[in-house]
Amino acid sequence: MSRLLTSIFMIGSIGYVVFRYRYRIINALIGTGWMRRLAVGSIMSFPGVRQKLMSSVFGGPSAR
Q1: Residue-wise over 15-38: b if at least 16 C-beta within 10 A, else e?
Q2: Which residues have C-beta within 8 Å of that of residue 57, sequence separation ≥ 6?
Q3: Helices (H), ranges, 1-64
Q4: What are the Cα distances from residue 23, in Å, to 3, 28, 34, 58, 60?
Q5: Cα-based torsion angle of the residue sequence 28, 29, 30, 33 in order, rounded to the nearest 10 degrees
Q6: How far apart are the C-alpha atoms of 2 and 42, rounded to whole Å?
Q7: What domain of life does the native source organism fall in (predicted)?
Q8: What's the CA angle centered on 6, arms 13 and 22, to 5 degrees?
Q9: What angle do CA 47, 49, 52 make, to 5 degrees?
Q10: DSSP assignment, residue 61?
Q11: Which of 12, 47, 48, 55 could join 60 in a cystine, given CB atoms 3.0 to 4.6 angstroms apart?
């Protein structure tokens, strides 16, 4: 029982720290070139996101 409570406490503590410093963590990860390239490449692989982004950047028919 003690081990279960310790695990729950540790997961909660890590979750709190990640939530509290989420923007600093994201900026540190995306600050490196290869991680930025990986993140943008994976987001652009979704067809809906890619189409919406390309139409808003390069013009074209408005998607309403």
Answers
A1: eeeeeeeeeeeeeeeeeeeeeeee
A2: none
A3: 2-20, 22-30, 33-44, 47-58
A4: 31, 9, 19, 29, 33
A5: 100
A6: 41
A7: Bacteria
A8: 15
A9: 105
A10: S
A11: 55
